[in-house]
Amino acid sequence: MIKEWATVVSWQDGVAQVSCDVKASCNSCASRAGCGSRVLNKLGPQTTHTIVVPSAQPLVEGQKVELGIAEGSLLGSAMLVYLSPLVGLFALGGVFQVMFGTDLAAMCGAALGGVGGFLLARGFSHKLAAREAWQPVILSVGLPPDELRVEILSSEAR
């Protein structure tokens, strides 16, 4: 189970809307100046993701919850997203090379195969996302933000 903490944005009728912060993968690496991942992280303006999760327990805005998703569903979706365009790229590129015998045809076939693999992954993702095993679940719930109170006793009260 892969776990991540999120903040409740709203809760209504057994459905919680939660916000997860995007964590950059490279903040402490020694090669930050030449890192491609760092550049890609800076390009995306989105720093939070908002998702909907079922929750029978009433939640309060600002409350922290721990979300979990099965490793199998994460690996399956990653394979679908990355491998289907790659397989389409190589397969159609090879077929066009054999059929037409030119590099230009192979390049066009590879482009068509990559786009086709992407569209195939996009079509399957909606069906797979409907599976209950692929949905994130709330594993634990933190205290509401207004419940925790810390009192400091003065030295006179002791």
From TrEMBL:
InterPro entries xref list: RseC, SigmaE_reg_RseC_MucC
Domain of life of the source: Bacteria
UniProt cross-references to PANTHER family, sorted A to Z: PROTEIN RSEC (PTHR35867)
Name this polypeptide is given: SoxR-reducing system protein RseC
Pfam hit, one: RseC_MucC
TM annotation in the entry: 74-98, 104-121
Alphabetical keyword list: Membrane, Transmembrane, Transmembrane helix
Provenance organism: Silvania confinis
Gene this protein is translated from: rseC
